[in-house]
Amino acid sequence: MSGHDQNHSLDLLNGTLWYISGCTLQLETAGAYRRIALFLIYLFIFTVGLLENGLVVWVNWRRRHSANGVLFCIINVSLSDLMMIVLLPFFMMEVTLDKVWLWGRFLCKVTNLFYVVNFYSSSFFLAFMTLERYLSLTRPSFPAFFPVVGRRRWVLSGGLWALSLLLALMENVHVDLLDWEEPGCYMIPETNHVEWYVAVAFLCLIFQFLGPAAVIITCNVLMARAAQTAPDVQGRRDVWLVHVYSLVFVVCWLPYHLVTILLVIDDIDPYILSCNTLEVLYFSHNVVQSLSMFHCVANPVLYNFLSKSFRRNLINTAVDYIPRAGAVAQVGAWVQASAPTGRGTDAGEQQQQRKLSNASTSQSDIGM
């Protein structure tokens, strides 16, 4: 249950809402359908996201020390999404029991902390990954943010995780288990409720959405332009795919932040929005929050499974676990299927293909 939902409940109990008798839209009867929808959304994200991100971490983990900056960020994004996904069984049970929390105060605070930390860290590493990819394509001589040699990548990575933890603690310090009719896990500051809700909402908006979105969209637009002006780039699929990266990030997170900001406006001035509007906002807040987690499903597909290098590494990693005789046969079949048909390519054609690969903006192959 979010702080805004809790604030709404407190106001109703205190009888302070001016529109109690003026609401014509009643969505309480749809609550059961919302719980079913939320449970199914969480179940889908948990099942598919756990499989996808587990495969990504499994394949890329062995290369974490030698990986370039793009792949290093991809590993961190997958770890962040994976840690968020393992919390979903708690959320599914909470939704099923209509916001009743059964696992005590410790898990109430820990699950919230893990969720918010990965809420920020996933966006941070996506932004740095996009920036690293842009620089590797357009500024090859520019020093990498996550170089293979030295400790710089570990220091920067640790700094991003530490910043995510700091931002999460600002909210988590006010998260606690409250026992009214039933125990629930809520964020309720002891004093200055509105000020805290507004501060947390705007920190989240700036650090989790606006900042990363500005980097992701700007770098992707510049990469698309660079690919279009390159004389040896023939495939337009990769150019459009770059814009899909930006679109998916915005589609996942914009509805959540839009609803949150509108609720913050109501916290500041309860007379701006109508009663029916607020009913829709409070009803949809948990829905858009659950839909935002679809990035845990989309990220592995966009940044890993569409990449030829990742699929090749996935096959090689899987082959390592197949008996030797069968492995040789499967590798041979895969190499034969992957080989070019016809009379082959000469040195000039090979060089042209290499240029196309280097100039391409496709998936995570850039700089890998």
From TrEMBL:
Keyword annotations from UniProtKB, A to Z: Cell membrane, G-protein coupled receptor, Membrane, Receptor, Transducer, Transmembrane, Transmembrane helix
Cellular component annotations (GO), alphabetically ordered: plasma membrane
Membrane-protein topology: Multi-pass membrane protein
Record flagged with keyword Iron: no
GO BP terms, alphabetized: negative regulation of hematopoietic stem cell differentiation
Skewed-composition ranges (Polar residues): 348-368
Ranges for region Disordered: 341-368
InterPro entries: GPCR_Rhodpsn (IPR000276), GPCR_Rhodpsn_7TM (IPR017452), GPER1-like (IPR047143)
Membrane-spanning intervals of the chain: 36-58, 70-92, 112-131, 152-170, 196-223, 244-265, 285-306
PANTHER family: G-PROTEIN COUPLED RECEPTOR 182, G-PROTEIN COUPLED RECEPTOR 182 AND ESTROGEN RECEPTOR 1
Stated name of the protein: G protein-coupled receptor 182
